[in-house]
Specification:
mainly alpha
Length: about 50
C-alpha cells in the first residue's frame, strides 16, 4: 500500500517537474524575445541619433 502511494506521488512529482520545466522554457524564450525586441528598438534609436 505504501509503495503504491509513493509511486503515485512520484508520478505527480514528475508531472509537476515537467510542467515547471515547460513553463520555464516558455518564460526564458519569452524573455529573450522581449530583450531582443527592446535591444533592436534601442539600436535603431541609437543609429538615428
Amino acid at each position: 500500500m505504501a509503495s503504491k502511494q509513493s509511486k503515485q506521488w512520484t508520478t505527480a512529482q514528475l508531472e509537476l517537474i515537467a510542467q515547471l520545466k515547460k513553463e520555464k522554457e516558455g518564460f526564458v524564450q519569452g524573455l529573450s524575445e522581449w530583450i531582443k525586441k527592446h535591444l533592436d528598438q534601442n539600436y535603431k534609436t541609437v543609429l538615428k541619433s
